[in-house]
Fold Folate-binding protein YgfZ.
Amino acid sequence: MNSSTVAHLASRAVIAVSGPDWRSFLQGLLTQDVETLAPGALRFAALLTPQGKLLYDLFVAGTEDGALLDVAAEHRAAILTRLTMYRLRAKATLEASDLPVFAVFGGEVAGEGLYADPRLPGLGARAYGERPANADEDAYEAHRLALGVPGPADWGSEANYPIEADFDLLAGIDFKKGCFVGQETTSRMKRRGTIKTRMLPITFEGPAPAFGTEVLAGELRAGEVLSGGDGRAMALLRLDRIEDAALSVEGRPVRVDRPTWMA
């Protein structure tokens, strides 16, 4: 049996949500359905601006008495403030939690307290609470990048629409759940097929270009480089300019490596 990799995700933090109205409260805010979330299940979602721009990503982990929100640690205070603003009279409690976040991936991913990552089977599972780790967060980020899955370093805040960040392909949006903040724009983009740009992995020789470096298709701008490492990075690309095009970054040839999960 192959042992799995366990990485402490220091960039993530937890918000505990409970109270009799916690489901209906989150249901009206997030892009993913939580009404059917069972204890032990995990949903990937986003909190959007009213205009439909991506504010924050999060995972919603079902517990016996509510849910855990797995969020970017640097944004936890801001997320708590925003959720509190929306809470109004809802009987829901929001509290910062000290639970650490772990990713378990590769090899045999099984065991108590694991929440299967809903985006892709290859991403393994998340875990909340102390456990022995045998890798750091860089190992998980390299694994995510190898699968061509964008992450928080790629989408920032209020810079992109969730569909541009592939949330619709990675189980991050439920288009049948009913209203949520930013739903109108999100649904219209999907319905009308007006998806002009997406985040895709690119490959190249040498170190990753700086974040924001222009990707060219001939002499035309085709997008920009996002996060990455040696030989591979994510990029936000115009779909109409990358097909059968000679792409380059700073004079270096690059190639789009479209992952199989996007087919």
Summary: The chain has two domains: 5-128+135-155, 196-262. Helices lie at 22-27, 76-87, 137-146, 152-155, 183-192.
